[in-house]
Fold:
Amino acid sequence: REALVPALLDAYRIPYTFSDPLVMALTLDKALTKTVIQAAGLATAPFALIRGVSEAAEVRLPFPLFLKPVAEGTGKGISRRSLVESPAALREVAGDLLARFRQPVLAETYLPGRDFTVGLAGSGAEAEVMGLMEVSYTRPDETAAIYSYETKADYESRVRYTVPRDAVAAAAAGLALAAWRVLDGRDAGRIDLRCDAAGRPCFIEVNPLAGLNPVHSDLPILCRLNGIGYDALVARIVASALRRQA
Structure:
């Protein structure tokens, strides 16, 4: 989906901001993206791809697992049911997601630790971390620790965003920058990470076409928390694109 417009712009030699069609197509598929990240030696949770309900029985990962559609964004398909703890639940939830979204389901080893999102700017060796924020869940109920579509839409009452400065946060930022360069992201984007049971940050997914709504989108929010205003964020994106065209 996201690759269509940049492909047309490339065909007509019209300059644009953000990543090229190859990056957009690759990163839309979370399993392929994790395969590239894994091949680069970067940390990401073990995973399996379920293309049909019968394949759920072939998953050889320890429970609990986390399930989501392989090619959706903004938390679509993610809910408290995504966290499964038995083969029966795995089959049921995978079947529901397959029927609802008509695409394979990604099953990952559940990461129970801290939740980060990192904003990146620039391309290649010039890429840099603009800022990081940690997502903490303010509701004590069982749905709270899932960064779902509903949680993102109601973030002001469901989550708290902070800017930690500890070693784990620094490791998360370093991993995000390494992943951005491996995936050849351009101009700006956002990478989500979560810590495993040992407290090690792991790559979850990348958004190479991050939303820019100044109120609701994570990239402008985390930039604002890190002292980068909205105009400055847009200026960085455009400046990166201009450098690529020079």
